[in-house]
Amino acid sequence: MECETARARDPRIAAGMARQLAARAAALRDGARPLGWKVALTTAASQRAAGLDQRVVGHLTDRTLLADGAEVAIGGWSRAMIEGELAITLGADLPPGADEAAAAAAIGALSAAIELVDVTLPLDAVEEVIAGDVFHRAVMLGPPQASRHGGDDTGISVRASLDGVEVAREDDPRAVIGAPVDVVRFVADELARHGERLSAGDVVIAGSAIPLTPVAPGQRLRVEVAPLGALELSFTT
């Protein structure tokens, strides 16, 4: 996965990011605490559906952060879906244009993550999708594993189960979301295009390593990102 600094910009991305970051700034002024960023549209299929040739970025704050074991009311959602993800914690600032060695040095830890999304629009409504934080509704983060500093994703697998039945699995997340060093390089470059920076302490959830999986009230989810840990939550109306 290449660094995308030189890629021509799609005006829909620029317009959507301007609106998204304005909403983020308003939330921060209102007391929200920044957590970091999310990567979306990681697969070629999702990019084709959106009419794009790149991934996109969203943001995270503590207002959508869930504790392990939480219950989430999704009865009013349009299309509730879960994503099993790898979270990358930055131990140092990462400027745009960084090489692989600098990106690796900036990664302080890896951990398990779950993102909840509500797919309310077609993917080709690019500006609106990005302005709305790419369907983001909630995020759950596992404890950072500093033993994986530098972005070491060797041997990591992702498995999701609903009510004890496995519904999705990926034994090679890198094949879907890319190497952690390339993920953070992309985010640093993309944020710089929109006047933001990737900073020490930021968490980047790298995009779903498994296919988006629909969920319904009454179900219980477990996502295991072995050997980093597992997270659970349940869904209500």
TrEMBL record:
Residue ranges occupied by any Fumarylacetoacetase-like C-terminal domain in the UniProt entry: 58-232
Keywords assigned by UniProt, alphabetized: Hydrolase, Lyase
Any one GO MF annotation of this record: hydrolase activity
Keyword Iron-sulfur included in the entry's annotation: no
One Pfam family here: FAA_hydrolase
Entry superkingdom: Bacteria
Record protein name field: Fumarylacetoacetate hydrolase family protein
Organism name: Conexibacter stalactiti
Taxonomic lineage: Bacteria, Bacillati, Actinomycetota, Thermoleophilia, Solirubrobacterales
